[in-house]
Amino acid sequence: MPHAEHGHEPILQVRGLVKHYPLTQGVLIRKQVGAVKAVDGVDFDLVQGETLGIVGESGCGKSTVAKMLVNLERPTAGEIRYKGEDITKLSGRALKAVRRNIQMVFQDPYTSLNPRMTVGDIIGEPYEIHPEVAPKGSRRRKVQELLDVVGLNPEYINRYPHQFSGGQRQRIGIARGLALRPEIIVADEPVSALDVSVQAQVINLLDQLQNEFDLSYVFIAHDLSIVRHISDRVGVMYLGRIVEIGSDEEIYEHPTHPYTQALLSAVPVPDPEAREHRERIILSGDVPSPANPPSGCRFRTRCWKARERCALEVPALAVPAEFRYERGPAAHDSACHFAEEKQVVP
Amino acid sequence: MATVASEASAPGEHRPSKLLEVRDLHVEFRTRDGVAKAVNGVDYAVSAGETLAVLGESGSGKSVTAQAVMGILDMPPGRITAGQILFQGRDLLKLKEDERRLVRGAGMAMIFQDALSSLNPVLSVGEQLGEMYVVHRGMSRKDAKAKAIELMDRVRIPAARERVGQYPHQFSGGMRQRIMIAMAMALEPSLIIADEPTTALDVTVQAQVMDLLAELQREMNMGLILITHDLGVVADVADTIAVMYAGRIVEKAPVHEIYRAPAHPYTRGLLESIPRLDQKGQDLYAIKGLPPNLMNIPPGCAFHPRCPLAQDICVTEEPPLARVTYEGLVAERRSACHFWKETLDAAR
User: Fold this and answer.
1) Could you tell me if B290 and B149 lie in one domain?
2) How far, in Å, CA of A328 to CA of A132, rounded?
3) Domain assignment of residue B340, given as a range
4) Counting CB atoms within 10 angstroms of each CB, which of A160, A194, B44, B133 has the fewest?
5) Are B263 and B230 in contact (CB under 8 A)?
6) Which CATH number do you get for residue A195?
7) Domain assignment present for A340
8) Cβ of B214 under 8 Å from any chain A Cβ?
9) Residues of A with CB below 8 A from B204's CB?
10) Is the reported ipTM for this assembly greater than 0.95?
11) CB contact, 8 Å: A15 with chain B?
């Protein structure tokens, strides 16, 4: 675990994070009839300089977590502590100062860049809000430096987004994220819109920038092999909660939660030799609606191990009792009453 | 490969087992900014029961080729400038539109990536499935509805009888893709073209849908063309792979051979850019540069500006899709690289 080695304090501590979107009915008299529980109690730490990967299927709440981390959404409940200070309670000047340090890179490089602004204006826009980072006279030079850092020609500063390919646009998005010299970057599916041959270029760039600027990443993606490559620790989300979290080796080699096992086993492996002798766990059905999640363990409706206890008791995200006195890699946080180690990746 | 096409103008004699043969297909799009050459001489063939994976990035021409085969290419701006598409021995490009329509659905059918935008939002799924039988088989509405329920059962949609009257938006993504599959299977075609059928789905649902597709294919002994960019999906289901780049097939091989040792630097680059366990903490292999602009495809080998092996000959001469041979190779394997031997040796 990185915090043991470096003795670093977590730079970000997330506790009991909840986001409910109200469901309303009626036109004149609006009344709340329920809530979409997009995120429903998420805890994790982010250590300085590490990459925390968050994986999960669509609708699991991973993007909502990302938005709350950069304050694009206000949590319904819970805390996000940046260096010990709860940023969900901040406003005004104090909030602005914190936001500078937590920046975001978005998924879709086609819609997240304003088509009517030049690249220079897009990357330099953060300086309008935080002029203390770069005084007016030095901005153009700063933007050109950033273009160079992300591997684009600094002469492209006056071009428009449509003049760039998808991979180059994602580099522009990354340059914008770096403009304010943040400590934390939240990247929400930063490569999933890109072609395979270009994905690797962007992943390498993110890796290199992390070393250069000592960045901490929250890396959200659904591609499990990319998450494994870039992450120090990985959290698996299902229906608004983290079901298992640990180091990349603990999660990928020694998963103990049935959902993680099913997810890993479903990933197509680029090796035709593996297709005969690999065991696939095919889950039945679809993810239930987050407006009406199952009682107890949320995964129980699709779980092959589910018993009565799973419907009654919400399993806590902790080291399962059977592994508590072990020191092995199976002893990591897993929210399952019947956690069992199982190797699924050949 | 124009010579091959002209030699074999009497089809069906020497290769009767081929269900579909695409020969030297060329497709271009006329736009205001110029002519985009989307497909530049593609040859491939599929037999009954075989799965051919067509692998490529966006703009490689994989989907345009499939649209030309299905006869659903937008013309204009698209134009088929040369080639033949032989389906069960008949050249589809010589058929009239009403003859072509009979082939679509009954002879071959297509599954699209995005089920929500491919289904009609204002018709119930039962009506859309039943329509196939009303139009092609002249069934009554009542019989067609019974058939629709049968189809939904077959693609394992739970409670088919109750759900037959529901609309596409009432189904989840995985269920909608099953409805697409059901629609494609309705008239029991001999060829299915699936264009990125699971790209929009989550991994656990993707596995369910691919399994279903493979099972139905086996049952009905259909030919399947799977168009995808996902090397994992290909490894899971394909028999043969055709890798496309800039509108051409650059490598064609049995699935086991290509993953063991690619014979084209582009394929090799794709395979190596997948993160592997032993590479943790190192840079990923990345193919340098960008896919080419189809209005301005590089001369010679289109891949040469991005290729680590490129020599002078690669700029001046377009490499043919040459036969690859080595000891132990039984099936046909081809690579469009002047240096396929070197590439293969480096990988082995």
Assistant:
1) no
2) 49
3) 265-277+285-347
4) A160
5) no
6) 3.40.50.300
7) no
8) no
9) 57, 262-263, 266, 282-283
10) no
11) no
